[in-house]
Amino acid sequence: MSEFIVIQVGQCGNQIGSFLLPEILQEYGVKTTTDSPAKPKRNKAELQQFMSSFFNMDPTNTTIETLSDLLKSKAKARFLCIDMEDSVVARFKSGRLRDLFDSKSLITHYPGSGNNWAEGYCSHGPKFKQKILKAIQYNVEKCDHLHGFLVLFSMGGGTGSGLGTFIVKLLADFFPHIDRFVACVYPTGTEDVITGPYNMAFATEQLLESATCVFPVENRALLDIALRHTGRYSARNKTYFSPFRPFEDMNKIIVDMILHLTSGSRFGGKMNIDMNEINTNMVPFPKLNFLASGYSPFRLKNFNSSAHSDQLKNELFLASCSRNNQLIKVDPFDSRYMAMSVTLLGRGNYSINDMRGYIDRLKSKLHFACWSNKAVKVGLCNVAPKGLDFSMFSLCNTSSTSNLFQEVLNQFTKLYQRKAHVHHYTAISGFDFDQFKECQNSISNIIEFYQEIGKRKTL
């Protein structure tokens, strides 16, 4: 069974990880609180054959019902928690799941990276390189079939963007044959990080070079989805209201994306998709490794899928590919852009005939180039998300992703043309002023590459 090592970096990455681990346990049918989780759709013992995907644990024939049962099996989550501030990581040491974390996989420091990519990449990266490598190697050696690294961080701050991309490059240098999958969060541009545009641009440049596949998420897309699906939006006052904070709904959307993304590697299926197949099928050219993701339904409110009619399945298929359900601001069906490759993963009660019909509909709606008009990868995973009978997940490599890079470049240029805040970066040892221009040119080149690819649909 495929195994993953999760590396969560910075405040955002660790917050996402704090939502991810409980959801993984509930998907395996493990009760972690006094409140009973939704019953899994399959036998627990059968589900828990696949728990080694995220856990190092002694083999056991006993069905794991509770967190206590899991700890008796000496299970440790294969999660590395890294931050240059102690506050978020400290919660893992005292929370209800604290015994699942290995102390050798918790790395902190004080103070943080000061919202400065250069501080995280050029200063904290080299300083903690050996300690991070040792923690990674420690987890790698406990794996029998390591499938990939899953790295989580934000692009706007200093530690996530800087140290996060340093770690991705470290993985590329020291573990070149292990895939590096990155789920990263782009801020809306209205946050309190003034230097965010620089951090986003420098981090994006590094991911184009060192990541195997990138699954970007934009906060503005997440917030739109949350507003539509939670029912906690006042049209009159145009405000979001919730008994919780909005980022909790947004983190849940990201976590569900990751669960869908890895489900083909974690569970059995009629036509399953391993994560290494995603890179082979979805990235036709080097550096075009940013993939738009979408799924349906969202579990932000109660959803009744018990009446699994063909009509409802069709609705979920179309919704998973629609612009309203994309985790970045793209529209795969926009006629101005070209789709280079698509993956559809049905979880739960789907048949091969269902998927064949969806492929035909997809090809009639999407605009493929003549050289990629058959580039649709299909998967069927037997295990549906918790509490559902079925769901649909999509990945699309589309030239409309250039809009994300254009937004990053525009924000970067507004600051750089005035040389605003540049001195904070050049003051860091190892950072050279020329990196500003090199980064700007690199992102401009990738935008041109997408534009050129888009023209090929008419060839």
Largest sheet: 6 strands, parallel
Report the structural category.
Answer: alpha/beta
* pLDDT < 50 stretches: none
CATH class of the largest domain: Alpha Beta
| Residue fraction in strands | 15-25%
Determine the CATH topology of the largest domain: Rossmann fold
Give the tally of β-strands. 14
Secondary-structure arrangement, i.e. CATH architecture of the largest domain: 3-Layer(aba) Sandwich
Radius of gyration: 21 Å
Mean pLDDT: 87
Q: Between the first and last Cα atoms, what is the distance in angstroms?
A: 43 Å
Enumerate how many helices there are, as a single number: 15
Integer tally of domains: 3
The helix/strand order is EHHEHEEHEHEHEHEHEEHHEHEHEEHHH
Helicity level: 40-55%
CATH superfamily of the largest domain, called what?
Tubulin/FtsZ, GTPase domain
Strand order in space, largest sheet: 5-4-1-6-7-8
Protein name: Tubulin beta-3 chain-like Protein
Pfam families: Tubulin, Tubulin_C
Family: Belongs to the tubulin family.
Domain Tubulin/FtsZ 2-layer sandwich: 271-410
